[in-house]
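Lab notebook: predicted structure, single chain.

Context: the supervisor wants predicted structures on file for every construct in the current expression panel, including those that have not yet been purified. This is the next one on the list. No modifications to the sequence; it matches the entry in the shared construct table.
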Amino acid sequence: MEARRPLATTGLLVLAGLVLAACTGSEGPGSGLTTSEALAEAGDTGVGHDTDRFAERPPEAGGLGAADADAPDWPWERAAGGEDVPAEVPLDEIVSGGPPPDGIPPIDDPVFESVDEADDWLEANDPLMVVDHNDEVRGYPLAVLTFHEIVNDELGGDPVVVTYCPLCNSGLVFDAEVDGQVLDFGTSGRLWRSNLVMYDRDSRSLWSQFTGEAIVGDRVGQQLERLPMQMVGFAELADRWPDAPVLSRDTGHERPYGQNPYSGYEDGDPFLFDGETDEALAQMDRVVAAGEDDDPLAVPWDRLTEEQVVHTDIGGEPVVVLWAPGAASALDDATISDGQEVGQTGVFDAEINGRELTFAPADDEDGRFVDEQTGSTWRITGEAVDGQLAGTQLERRNHDDTFWFVQHAFRPETRVVDER
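Prediction complete. Output recorded below exactly as produced.
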C-alpha cells in the first residue's frame, strides 16, 4: 500500500468542477457552465451573506462596531502588502479550493421544520448531524450542509457553529463564543490539507475546521470548544427525537438539495492534498476518530462494520464505539439517499455510576446492543430502551466519521485500533 497517492490531473479538474457545482448549485462539469462562468456565478452569489446584522454589533460582542464599518483585509491581502500576518501555518500551504470567500454560502439565519415536514423530502437513510446540547436537539441534514458547510446557529441558549467538510466527510460542532465574543463564521474558499478553512467575520482570521483553531490572522492560537454530535440516518432521528427541529431547505439559496455534487469522490483520491499518510490504512479509508489531541485514535470502518462494537480506551478511561446500519454515504451516488450503506456510529463512556459495561450486538434486533452486566438493550444513540437501565443515557464522546488521510494529516500520532 502506498503511503502517498498523487492526484491525477484529470481527477483534479473533475473534482474542481464538483466543488464549483457545490458553490453555484449547478450539476457540475456536465451542467453547461464553463469553469470561468461557474467562478463568475460563484462570485455573484458568494458575497450575499447577511453582513449588516454582524456589522452593527459592538466590537466587544464580536462585531465591526457600526453598520458602515469596513471589513478587515483578508490575510493573503495583508501578506501581499508586506504585512507580517500572525500565522501558525505558512500561507502557501493554505490553497484556493476554487470558490471565493463565501462562494459556498454559510447559513446565517437557519430555518427549521418538524420531523413530519422533513419526511416529505428526506429518506429514512439520509444522513444527518444530530446535536444534543443543553437539553435541546436539532438535526442538520447533509443534503443541505453539503451545499453550505457552515450553519451559524443557537442551541440550548448558546451560540454554535455547525460545520461539515465534504472533502473530509468531517462533521464538527463548536461553541461560537471565544473569550466572551460571539463569532460568526464563513467559508474562506481556501483549503488546508484538503480541509475546510473557515473565517470569522470580525477579524477575518482563518480557522481550521478539523481542529477548531485559528491558524492565521489576529486571532491566531485561539481555540473553539468542540461539542458532541452524532451522524445518524433520518429514521433514527425521527424515532429517537420525534420532536426535534430539522434544518429545512428554506435557506435563501437555490440548490438541488438531496443531490450530491461530489458523486464518486470517496472512490478516488483526496482533493488538493499532497501530504503523506502512513501505511496502516489507505488514504480514503473511513475511520471513526476520537480522543482529539489528548489521545487520538482511529477505528477502521471495516472492523467496526464487521463487529459493530469495539471496546477501547481514551486517556485510560473505557469507551465503547458502536455501529449500526441505517445511513447512506453522502459522497457516493449522485443522489445522497441512493448512496452506499455506511451506517451510523457513536462513541460513549463505557461506565455508568462507576460500573464498567461490556456491550455486544443484540441477537434479536438489528441496530441494537446489549450490555453483559444488566442485559439492558441500547440503541446507537447511547440510550437504554429496555431492561434494568432503561432510560439511562451514556455520556457521548466527541468523535468524527472521517477519512484516514485527514485524521493522520492533523494528528499523525493517531493509534489505529485494529486488533481483532
